[in-house]
Specification:
This protein is α/β, with parallel strands linked by helices and about 575 residues long. Among the domains are: about 130 residues, no CATH class; about 110 residues, Leucine-rich repeat, LRR (right-handed beta-alpha superhelix), CATH 3.80.10; about 150 residues, Leucine-rich repeat, LRR (right-handed beta-alpha superhelix). About 45% of the residues lie in helices and about 10% in strands. It has a 13-stranded parallel beta sheet. The radius of gyration is 31 Å and the shape is globular. The two termini are about 15 Å apart. InterPro entries: LRR_dom_sf (IPR032675), LRRC14/PRAME (IPR050694).
Length: about 575
C-alpha cells in the first residue's frame, strides 16, 4: 500500500508527543482525521487522546471493516480515546456529538494488543459512568450550546414557514382582487365569488398549518417510548454507538451504564450476550434505544422454548433488526411434551413479527421436522441462513428446497446435518433454485462420500456466483478431492475452497464411513509428506490458470469473510 504525502507527514508530526502543544493549536480542522489515523497506526495513545479532546467535527468514526492484513486499533489507543471523549465534554474546542465505534473491537490477545468486544463494552460502560460523575457542572456548557443550536434551527424553520404562508396568502388575495375588478358588471356574482375565494384561502391556510403540526408530531415520535427516549436525550452531549458484548460478569456494569442519564449515551448496533438468563436479557433489551439495533446474538444461554417465545415479542420492537443468531440455547424438540405444538405456534408468531429479518442463525437447537413451522412464518425472504447441528430431517430439506427463501439466499450453512441418498434430491433442487444468488456455502461434516459428492458436483458447478465453499470433515478420498478441484476451476467466481484431509492421509484403523467427530479426532499419518496433498491440488489450479482460488484444509483458521 502506497501512503500519501499527508499520511507520511502526519506520522512524523505525531511521533514526538512533547511538541504537540506547539503544533496542535495551529492545526487546521481538515488535518485532524489524518493525524488521528497516524496516531492509531503508530500507536501514539497520548496524541490520540489530545486529538479527540479537541475534535472539531460533529462525528468521529473509528473502526469499521478492516482491510486484509490490517490490525485492530491498539488497546492503549482506545483507552486514551475514551478518556479524550470525557475530557472533551468540558473543552469548548470539542464539537463531538456522535462517536461511532462499531467494528473497532479485535480478538483478545491478537497482534498489536487489540481490545476485544467484552473489554470494549466494559470500558465504554465505565466511561459513561465516570462522565456522569466528573462532568455534572461543566457539562451544561456544551449542552446549552447544543440546545441553542437546535433552537436557532427551529426558529429559522418557523420563520421560513411563516414567510411562505404570508406569500401564499398575499398571492391569493391579489388574484381575488384582480378577478373582482374584471367582473364589476355582475356585483352579486362577484361578491359570492369573493367570499368563496376567502373561504378557500382560510381553508388552505388551516390545512397547511394542520399538515405542519402533523409533521412535527411525526418527527417527535409516534410512540410513548420514542418520546421518552427523546426526553432523556436532552441531557446527552455525545452519543456513543458500538457493538456490545455482555455476559454474566459484565451485566451489572452495562446495566448501570444504560440506565444512567448523563452527557454520554450508549447505543448498540449488534448485541451479543452469553450465559445470561431470560429475565436479564429482557431487562437489557428494554434499556436499549429502539432505533439502530441491527442484530442480536444469544449464545450458551438456557432459553428453552418458553424463554425464546418470551424474547421474540421484545425483539419485534426494534424496527431495524435484521439479524438473529441463537447458538446452543437449549432448544430440543426431540423431547416430546404435551405443550410442544403450542410452543411451536408461539415461536412461529414471534418470528412473524420480525419484519426486517434477513439473517437467521440457529446452531445446535435440535429441531428435526420443524423447519417449515419456523421459516414459513417469516414475512421477508432470508439472505443468510445458518442451520448447523440442527438434526435436519428429509422433510426439512424438502421444505427448504422449495421455500420462499431459496431464491434470495446469499449464504447457506447446513454443516453437520447428515446427507444421504434420500436428502440429495432436495439438496440438488435447493442449489438449483439458489444458483443465481448463492455466494457462500458450507457442507462441512455432512457425511459426503465420493459417490454422493459425484452426484452433487453438477449442482455445485451450476452456482456460478459462489465465492466460497466449505467441505471439511467429509470422508473423501484423494480421487474425490481431485474431482472436486477440477469442478472448482470451472466456477468463475470461486475464490476459497475448504477441503477435507483425504482418507489416505489418516493413520490406519479409521472406520470405512467415519463421522465428522472421528475425522476431527483421528490422527494423521506423520510418515506422509504433509504438503503432498496440497501440492497435487494446487497443481490442478495452476494447470487451469486459476491461481486466484485459495485452497486450505485448515478448519480452525478458515474465514469465508476474507473473500471480497
Amino acid at each position: 500500500m502506497v501512503l500519501s504525502l499527508v499520511s507520511l507527514c502526519a506520522k512524523e508530526v505525531v511521533r514526538d508527543h512533547s511538541s504537540s502543544h506547539s503544533w496542535l493549536r495551529w492545526m487546521p480542522k481538515d488535518l485532524y482525521r489524518a493525524l488521528l489515523e497516524a496516531a492509531f497506526s503508530t500507536c501514539r495513545p497520548l496524541a490520540v487522546g489530545e486529538l479527540v479532546q479537541r475534535w472539531p467535527e460533529l462525528t468521529l468514526r473509528v473502526g469499521g471493516r478492516r482491510k486484509p492484513g490490517q490490525t485492530a486499533p491498539n488497546r492503549l489507543c482506545i483507552q486514551s480515546m475514551l478518556l479524550g471523549v470525557v475530557r472533551g465534554l468540558t473543552d469548548h474546542r470539542c464539537a463531538l456529538e456522535v462517536l461511532d465505534l462499531c467494528g473497532v473491537q479485535g480478538d483478545e490477545g491478537g497482534m498489536g494488543d487489540p481490545m476485544g468486544g467484552w473489554s470494549l463494552t466494559v470500558a465504554l460502560s465505565t466511561m459513561v459512568l465516570k462522565a456522569r460523575v466528573r462532568t455534572r457542572r461543566p457539562q451544561r456548557t456544551r449542552r446549552e450550546q447544543k440546545k441553542e443550536r437546535d433552537q436557532e434551527r427551529k426558529r429559522i424553520s418557523a420563520l421560513e414557514r411563516e414567510r411562505d404562508l404570508k406569500r401564499e396568502r398575499g398571492q391569493k388575495k391579489r388574484d381575488g382582487e384582480l378577478n373582482s375588478n374584471e367582473s364589476t358588471n355582475v356585483g352579486e356574482r362577484t361578491e359570492s365569488s369573493g367570499s368563496v375565494s376567502e373561504e378557500d384561502l382560510s381553508k388552505g391556510v388551516r390545512r397547511r398549518m394542520e399538515m405542519e403540526r402533523k409533521r412535527e408530531r411525526t418527527v417527535l415520535g409516534s410512540s410513548e417510548r420514542e418520546a421518552e427516549e427523546k426526553e432523556m436525550d436532552r441531557d446527552v452531549v455525545v452519543h456513543v454507538r458500538a457493538d456490545l458484548f455482555v455476559n454474566g460478569r459484565s451485566w451489572e456494569r452495562i446495566h448501570s451504564a444504560l440506565s444512567t442519564s448523563g452527557p454520554l449515551k450508549l447505543q448498540c448496533r449488534y448485541l451479543r450476550v452469553e450465559e445470561i438468563s431470560v429475565p436479564s436479557i429482557s431487562i437489557l433489551l428494554d434499556l436499549l434505544p429502539r432505533r439502530g439495533l441491527l442484530g442480536v446474538d444469544i449464545r450458551y444461554s438456557s432459553l428453552g422454548v418458553a424463554g425464546l417465545a418470551e424474547l421474540l415479542p421484545l425483539l419485534s420492537t426494534f424496527p431495524a433488526l435484521k439479524s438473529l443468531r441463537l447458538h446452543y440455547c437449549n432448544l430440543d424438540f426431540r423431547r416430546v411434551h404435551p405443550s410442544q405444538s403450542e410452543a411451536l405456534g408461539e415461536l412461529s408468531q414471534g418470528l412473524a413479527r420480525l419484519q426486517e429479518l434477513r439473517h437467521l442463525s440457529l446452531t445446535a437447537l435440535r429441531l428435526p421436522g420443524q423447519l417449515r413451522v419456523l421459516l414459513s412464518s417469516l414475512p421477508q425472504p432470508l439472505e443468510i441462513l445458518e442451520l448447523p447441528y440442527l438434526s435436519l430431517s428429509p422433510a426439512d430439506f424438502a421444505y427448504l428446497s422449495c421455500s420462499h427463501h431459496t431464491s434470495t439466499l446469499q449464504q447457506l450453512d447446513i454443516s453437520e446435518n447428515r446427507l444421504d441418498e434420500n436428502t440429495l434430491p432436495s439438496i440438488r433442487r435447493l442449489l438449483s433454485q439458489a444458483s443465481g444468488s448463492l455466494q457462500h456455502l458450507s457442507l462441512s461434516g455432512c457425511g459426503l462420500t465420493d459417490g454422493l459428492l459425484g452426484l452433487l458436483l453438477p449442482s455445485l458447478g451450476g452456482c456460478r456466483g459462489l465465492k466460497s465453499l466449505a467441505l471439511a470433515l467429509n470422508p473423501l478420498s484423494m480421487a474425490g478431492l481431485m474431482d472436486l478441484v477440477k469442478m472448482a476451476v470451472r466456477m468463475p467466481s470461486l475464490r476459497q475452497l475448504l477441503y477435507p484431509n483425504p482418507l489416505e492421509d489418516y493413520q490406519p484403523g479409521l472406520p470405512d464411513l467415519p463421522s465428522s467427530a472421528q475425522l476431527l479426532d483421528w490422527p494423521l499419518d506423520e510418515t506422509l509428506d504433509i504438503n503432498l496433498t496440497s501440492n497435487k491440488l494446487n497443481r490442478v489450479l495452476i494447470d487451469n490458470g486459476r491461481s486466484d482460488i485459495f485452497l486450505t484444509c485448515d478448519l480452525l483458521n478458515y474465514d469465508k469473510d476474507m473473500v471480497a
